[in-house]
Design a protein that fits this description.
Oligomer: single chain
Shape: globular
Number of helices: 14
Radius of gyration: 22 Å
Protein name: Cysteine desulfurase
Organism: Limisphaera ngatamarikiensis
Bound molecules: 4'-deoxy-4'-aminopyridoxal-5'-phosphate
GO molecular function: cysteine desulfurase activity; pyridoxal phosphate binding
Helix content: 25-40%
Strand content: 15-25%
Function: Catalyzes the removal of elemental sulfur and selenium atoms from L-cysteine, L-cystine, L-selenocysteine, and L-selenocystine to produce L-alanine.
Strand order of the largest sheet: 4-12-11-10-9-5-6
Catalytic activity: (sulfur carrier)-H + L-cysteine = (sulfur carrier)-SH + L-alanine
Distance between the termini: 39 Å
Number of strands: 19
Length: 409
Amino acid sequence: TGGVDWHRLREDFPILHQTVHGKPLIYFDNAATSQKPRVVIETLRRYYERDNANVHRGIHELSNRATQAYEAARTRVARFLNARSPDEIVFTRGTTEGINLVAQAWGLQNLRPGDVILLTELEHHSNLVPWQMLAQRVGAKLAFVPVTGDEGLVDERRLAELLAPPVKLFAMVHVSNSLGVVNPVADWCARARQRGIVTLVDGAQSAGHMPVDVQAIGCDFFVFSGHKTCGPTGVGVLYGRRELLEHMPPWQGGGEMILSVDYHQTTFKAPPHRFEAGTPDISGPIGLHAALDYLDGIGRARIWQHDQELAQYAYDRLAAIPGIRLFGPKRGRAGLVSFLLNDVHAHDVVTLADREGIALRGGHHCTQPLMRKLGVESTARASFYFYNTFEEVDRFVEVIRAIQKFFSR
Ligand code: PMP
């Protein structure tokens, strides 16, 4: 696809070149976490070998270098998302922490008893549980836009009805990690904005896989995790529109986020530093910077096309297996497939695939309410990234066929 030598890119990922249970590793668990290219690993090593120091405090050389690299990473993330300013970028621990930050800082300040937080039925627990906790504290309610059938597409008619007062916030997943549904978030955010509803987009599965432009999407908040975008674990990003961040109180207190402190009161820094109390993960953003350079060096539009082609190929080949149940959209899916074999538990599929060197995920994928809605306990999931190949999909389908045969004897 797109004039890229995808096989050659595999050379950038040391971890891919190993055998598991005597078979060449096929890593199809990218929705859980992505692998790291050598340039990210090297960047982390170089930082710890040459520049490690605390940020924003020392005026010695190493502290200056660390601070510069940390803030350069913020600027890089702003460009990655097309934010208007690096001041709109807050470093977090991940998607989960970004959502909790918004729930506590924005939510406690802005939600009143009777207000409604609107979510879709597709949400990951991390875009559900923090809102439940907030709703209980402030006396707000949750409402859900339903999805239909095994395809899991959001019911647009119901959405149009629900997107109205007393809804104050609409928090939506961009790409569903369990079904591969891609939501038209730009359209939804535009309609929410017309009604004065604040929006948050969970970009955990989209940011590293497709071009993302927060201004074009028109959301108020956008969150993602470094570890799913070829970056290190322990770092994530919250984008917040400046107008909102400026009015939000801090959520954690401590060093680094203050202008001046006396024994009884404190004045806080402006965003984004107001939201980064204590020593942050410094190497994380620096490693993430290298990862974003790497991804954009390939081109996210190309990555997205490759993801989608692999997933469609896998979906179509799996669909030919008798007794398989496939979840998620038939066309236009993101780079993953979720499925069940007749009478075989998803965990058995994953265990047997592992013996063939194939890393899949089986379970509820942190979307228990969605699984219940679909009437299943779990699914098996293969999730792809740009370093996966059609040959790997062929091998995977062969193994799934063999598992099906084994159980239907
Ligand atoms: N939302 C979605 C859609 C996800 O796929 C994930 C990770 N599985 C998360 C949120 C949470 O991300 P993290 O665990 O990195 O905070």
